[in-house]
Amino acid sequence: MPWPLTGARVFLPDEGLERPAPAGAGYEVPWLLLSLTCSRTIVEMVAILWSQPTMPGIDFQQLRAEISVAEVLELLGFIATNGSGDQRYGPCPLNPTTAKQRDRRFSVNLRSGRFFCRECGRFGDQLDLWAAASKQPLYDAAVALCNRLHREPPWIQHW
Ligand SMILES: [Zn+2]
User: Fold this and answer.
1) If I label 26, which of 11, 77, 84, 127 is the partner at 20 to 30 A Cα–Cα?
2) What is the band of 6 on the pLDDT scale with cuts at 50, 70, 90?
3) Which residue segment(s) compose the domain that 98 sits in?
4) Is residue 14 predicted with pLDDT exceeding 80?
5) Which pLDDT tens digit goes with each residue over 93-109?
6) Are residues 100 and 120 in the same domain?
7) Beta bridge partners of residue 83, listed in sequence order
8) pTM for the whole thing?
9) Rounded CA separation 98/137 (Å)
10) In the prediction, which pLDDT does 107 show?
């Protein structure tokens, strides 16, 4: 019987938001019990555990430190129409169909990595921007972003 974790919510202090637990979270232990009760050999058990599609954690804070909002903006083809200091304005990469040539409704701070769009109302940091643009959950977006930039995601090592 699977662990009753479907629909469970996890609190990520880094995010400051409640997010749904990733699919499959909490299923590793029942798999181990199943392996044990099937009286498999140790070698078989190890092979099964290694082959399980576990989701290794990503250090999102580290990822944000490594990948700048400027890199994400470049991937999205953003061209600023205005700006001063670290602040840039331009057409929103998230709603390009309504963006005009000299649009200033999307603003982004290159130092903090925070963005805000006065048209679609979306805001967040560089990872939120990539997730919204690529229409993926944060975890998948983080992995995809690292792949695009040919970098190893900052996995959280559990042992
Ligand atoms: Zn927008």
Assistant:
1) 127
2) very low
3) 61-148
4) no
5) 998 665 555 577 899 99
6) yes
7) 88
8) 0.64
9) 24
10) 96
Please tell me what DSSP assigns to residue 22. P
- The alpha-carbon radius of gyration of the chain (Å, integer) is 20
Same domain, yes or no, for 37 and 95?
A: no
Give distance in angstroms: CA of 133 to centre of ligand 1.
10
* CATH number, domain containing residue 135: 3.90.580.10
Q: What's the 126 CA to ligand 1 centre distance in angstroms?
A: 14
User: Is 83 found in the same domain as 30?
Assistant: no
Does residue 2 form part of some domain?
no
CA of 34 to the centre of ligand 1 (A): 48
Q: What is the pLDDT of residues 45-84, one digit of tens each?
A: 665 556 556 678 999 999 999 999 999 999 999 999 899 9
Q: 51 with 65, same domain?
A: no
Rounded distance from Cα 94 to ligand 1 centre (Å): 5
Question: What's the domain count of the chain?
Answer: 2
Nearest alpha-carbon partner for 69 in 107, 114, 103: 114
Output the CA torsion 95→101→106→108 (10° steps). 120
Cα of 145 from ligand 1 centre, angstroms: 20
Predicted pLDDT of residue 12: 47
In a domain, 154, yes or no: no
Shared-domain flag, residues 69 and 40: no
Which pLDDT does position 104 carry in this prediction? 77
Tally the residues of the chain. Answer: 159
